[in-house]
């Protein structure tokens, strides 16, 4: 008796949430782990696309290359997801460009479908989830602090924010893709799962 209705200044009843309100911004984690040393980098971007994948790889290489001057070839183990598969034209185009930019020979090795559990990065995600389990991830600072607290192989990860807009649906026209497809050395037995890309040798790289 004597209570008040839940109305605003206009007499409208505010609808209550029966679950958490929608997030104002979503961030997608990208992870790169070096199999030999266990060094881990986590990057958080706005959207998972082929371009975001390669931009994350570029950011990682810029961070580590000073200590890896002897490395001329990268073997990258990947899940065969839709954004980075051996048939995704935009991803393959960007990887050819990454090879030319870095001067590295790139070998893309894909886990078979439904076998991503064997990828070490999957165990990194479970450790990360333990650190933010029960935490209200209501801002970038909290998210990054949780990521910085986790450890993998006894070491804390490098954590970075991947900035940029990454729209869906970016594809390479068939005519343009012929140039990039010619740069892909596909395995005769596993053409979708084992791809080598050799960089173009520039005058600067050849010196």
Describe this structure as you would to a colleague.
The chain has 207 residues and is an alpha/beta fold. Helix content is 31%, strand content 17%. It contains 6 helices and 7 strands; from the N terminus they run ββαβαβααβαββα. Helix 1 runs parallel beside helix 2. The radius of gyration is 22 Å and the shape is globular.
Write a short abstract of this structure.
The protein has 207 residues and is an alpha/beta fold.
Annotate the secondary structure layout.
Elements: E1 28-33, E2 40-45, H1 50-64, E3 73-78, H2 89-102, E4 105-110, H3 120-132, H4 140-149, E5 158-161, H5 174-181, E6 184-186, E7 194-197, H6 203-206
Structural features:
207 residues; 6 helices; single chain; 4-stranded mixed sheet; 3-stranded mixed sheet; 7 strands
* Main β-sheet, spatial strand arrangement: 3-4-7-6
Number of helices: 6
The residue ranges in which pLDDT falls below 50 over 5 or more consecutive positions are: none
SSE run: EEHEHEHHEHEEH
**What assembly state would you assign to the polypeptide chains in this entry?**
single chain
Global mean pLDDT: 87
Radius of gyration: 22 Å
Overall form: globular
Beta strand %: 15-25%
Structural class: alpha/beta
| Helix-residue proportion | 25-40%
Number of strands: 7
Distance between the termini: 88 Å
Taking the sheet with the most strands, its summary is: 4 strands, mixed
